[in-house]
Structures are given as structure tokens and as C-alpha cells.
Write a structure and sequence with these properties.
heterodimer; A: mainly alpha; 15 helices; 2 strands; 1% strand; B: mainly beta; globular
Chain lengths: 299, 115
């Protein structure tokens, strides 16, 4: 297993297939089918932490630890999903399976497209075009601003791989997407009738079911990581910083174990931030402008 | 005519100008009917799919987001096109076949750079 220059994890597909097969054999189908519920439970735990942003230190620390635990439980799943789904499909194909793939429908992305189409219709009903909205933002009628802000809050997990990069959490990003796709926005095509799927063994049927669950995890991977950042970590930056003598942005450059065990000196955090801010290839590739972190924390 | 081959991931045929995506964010240079050429597609790009003609992806996974979205929006898609971002340029017009995985680069027809 190696990490290439683009930051991608390159793995031996033969070894992976073996691991995937053993994993499926060693666990129950129910465990695989429970993956989605497991992720929903983790997200619910994270969302429950957002009820108060002015908690005292003890509560803040406890919430940070809960976030750390939840993310530790969650983070391996989308990574494993990326590795497992190809291996599982290859195994199925080699064992004679040639049926339809267990793809989610609508997928999270398709739901986003459908929701944006609905928002665009509602905005259009107010008589303001997407381009006018973008150009006048935030100087738009309050009811329109409220709709766009609510959409941004509801879809804050959608965005580029870098979790601090601008995404649908930002009204300006929402409006830019609306302008670009004006006149074309719509949800997915209606699902076609499923074709009967026949398996030549109960193991193949089990692998197929597990594959569907892992594809769901892979589809929601980035979305859930980014959403966790926005709904649970961002609100805690200010209270954590206020008792640590650093700025909220500095906290973004501390590791979880450092937050729990004691932050490094502010100068160390600032040095990390400076290194980040001069990583122009990374920032450009992910569409991150210099003022992004200030904007994130202020929001 | 130059032909590049990848893996057909969603059947259907489409012709259009190449629109490359080399950085993240909302790509403002895409026009309706474009053939999106990208290393990998993330779900946040889904709202753009209804305006695309097709999708060409460098990454080879047949269960990746791009394929799932292409199937939902019934767009021709080809994956596993090595160095597509280098081999295709924005002034190219291409025709893609999502069943065979073939990309035909049409002779230059005087298309200017896409805005």
C-alpha cells in the first residue's frame, strides 16, 4: 500500500479482494447492511453537539472528545468502502454475476441536484433571476435570503474533498451553481424497473447485498466528513480558543490529541498556518482563497 | 481523426466541446452540451450533470460517483481514460460512446477556447 504524489492511496487489488472476501465471510450480511444505520447514528451524535455553542470549558472538552471518538469510528468506513467495492464487484463478476449493480437511487448527489432545482424554482417565483441573486447577494429580499441560507445549512456537507474548501455551505457557492446550471437544473431520471437478479450461490447474494451497503458508504463519505466539520467542529472553535489563549483559526492547526492533552505554543500553530497558507498548489487546486478560514470562523 | 479508448461506464453517444476540470469548485467555464473531462467527480458537481453532454473520467472505478450520477441522469460516461486531462484540450470537440468507451477527437473545426 503506497501513497502517491497526488495523495491517492494505491493498493494491491489482488490483496484487497482477498481481504474483502474474508471480511464478507467473517461478518454477517446484517453487519454490512447496518453500515448506513451506523453512519446515521454517528451523524446524529455529532448533530446533537451543536445545541449550544457557548458551553463552559468542561462541556467543550467533553464535546471535542465525543467528536474525536465519532470521527475515529467513522473515518475508516469511506476509506474501506473505496477499497472494498471494486474488489467485491470483481469477485461477483468472476463468479458469474452479470446483473444490475446495486447503485443508490437517488444518490446523495442526485438529491442535491433535485433540491437545488426546487430552490431555483422558488427563487424564480420571486421574480429575481439567479444572476441577479448572485450579483445582489446579500442584498436580496429577506425571504429569498432565508431560503438560500437554509439550503446552505441543509447541504453543508457537499463540496470538494478538502473539508475547509468552499462548498454548498456558502450561499455564494449555492448561487454560483444556480447561475451556471440555470435552465438545466433537475433531479435524476425516474428509476427504471429493476431487472430480476439471479445469484448462483448464497455467498454471491450476500456479497451483492454487502456491496450495496458499501457503495452507500462510499457515496456519503466526503459528504459526511465535511458535514461533521461544519456542524460539530466549527461551533467549538471559539469557545476552545478563548480558554486556550489562541485564535479560533489557530485551533484548526492543532491535532485532536493536542486539543485534549495540551495545545502547542501559539507560535507553533501559527507556523503550521503559515505553511498551509503558502501551499499555493493545494489551495489553488481546491479553490481556497486566502480569506477562506477567516470567513469560515466568522460564519 | 484521433481515437482514445477508455472503459464504457454508461451507454449513449454525445458530441460536444471539451470542458476540463482541473481544480475544485463551481466550474464557470462549462457550456451546455460540454463533455466534462475530469480526474474524479465528487457528488457536489451533480447539479451540473443535466447540462452536460457526457463525462470522461481519468479514474478507472466503475462504481465511482461519476458513474452513479451519469446513470441517474442518463449521460454517456467513459472512465479509466489515462491522462485524459493532458490528451484532450479545451479547443477540442469530441464524440464519445459510453458503450464502447471510445472518444473520437474531431478535426479542428475552428472552435475557439471555451469561456
Amino acid at each position: 500500500m503506497t501513497l502517491d504524489s497526488a495523495g491517492d492511496l494505491q493498493v494491491d487489488s489482488g490483496a484487497l479482494e482477498d481481504i474483502a472476501r474474508r471480511w464478507v465471510l467473517a461478518t454477517t450480511v446484517e453487519a454490512a447492511l447496518g453500515l448506513s444505520e451506523r453512519i446515521d447514528a454517528i451523524v446524529a451524535r455529532l448533530e446533537s453537539l451543536t445545541t449550544s455553542t457557548t458551553a463552559p470549558l468542561a462541556s467543550t472538552e467533553s464535546r471535542l472528545l465525543t467528536i474525536g471518538d465519532a470521527l475515529s469510528e467513522f473515518m475508516p468506513l469511506p476509506i474501506l468502502a473505496k477499497m472494498f467495492i471494486g474488489a467485491m464487484l470483481a469477485w461477483l463478476r468472476r463468479h458469474g454475476f452479470d446483473g444490475p449493480l446495486p447503485l443508490p437511487s437517488p444518490s446523495p448527489g442526485a438529491r442535491l441536484a433535485a433540491d437545488l432545482a426546487t430552490l431555483a424554482e422558488r427563487c424564480a417565483a420571486t421574480g429575481i433571476s439567479p444572476a441577479e441573486l448572485r450579483d445582489r447577494w446579500p442584498g436580496v429580499p429577506p425571504e429569498v435570503a432565508a431560503m438560500v441560507r437554509q439550503f446552505a445549512a441543509d447541504h453543508c456537507g457537499f463540496g470538494p474533498l478538502a473539508w475547509e474548501a468552499p462548498g454548498f455551505d456558502e450561499p455564494s457557492f449555492v448561487l454560483e451553481a444556480m447561475v451556471l446550471s440555470a435552465g438545466h437544473l433537475r433531479g435524476p431520471e425516474p428509476r427504471q424497473e429493476p431487472i430480476a437478479t439471479v445469484f448462483n450461490s448464497s455467498l454471491a447474494a450476500a456479497v451483492y447485498l454487502a456491496l450495496g451497503s458499501w457503495i452507500d458508504v462510499a457515496e456519503r463519505g466526503i459528504l459526511m466528513v465535511r458535514r461533521s466539520f461544519h456542524i460539530s467542529i466549527l461551533p467549538l472553535l471559539a469557545p476552545t480558543a478563548s480558554v486556550s489563549g489562541v485564535t479560533p483559526i489557530d485551533i484548526l492547526f492543532a491535532r485532536f490529541d493536542e486539543i485534549a492533552d495540551g495545545l502547542p505554543s501559539p507560535s507553533v500553530l501559527r507556523m503550521r498556518r503559515q505553511r498551509y497558507e503558502t501551499s499555493t498548489s493545494y489551495l489553488d487546486r481546491n479553490g481556497i482563497k486566502p480569506e477562506r478560514l477567516d470567513h469560515l470562523v466568522a460564519a | 481523426m484521433t481515437v482514445i479508448k477508455g472503459v464504457g461506464a454508461c451507454p449513449g453517444k454525445a458530441c460536444g466541446p471539451v470542458a476540463k476540470l482541473v481544480s475544485e469548485g463551481i466550474p464557470t467555464h462549462i457550456v451546455a452540451g460540454s463533455i466534462l473531462v475530469v480526474r474524479v467527480v465528487h457528488p457536489y458537481l451533480a447539479p451540473l450533470f443535466p447540462m452536460l453532454g457526457g463525462v470522461v473520467v481519468e479514474d478507472g472505478g466503475v462504481l465511482q460517483h461519476a458513474v452513479i450520477l451519469a446513470r441517474e441522469f442518463r449521460l454517456p460516461a467513459i472512465v479509466g481514460v489515462r491522462e485524459a486531462l493532458t490528451r484532450l484540450i479545451e479547443t477540442d470537440k469530441v464524440c464519445i460512446d459510453g458503450a464502447t468507451g471510445e472518444i473520437d477527437i474531431l478535426p479542428n473545426q475552428g472552435l475557439g477556447p471555451q469561456k
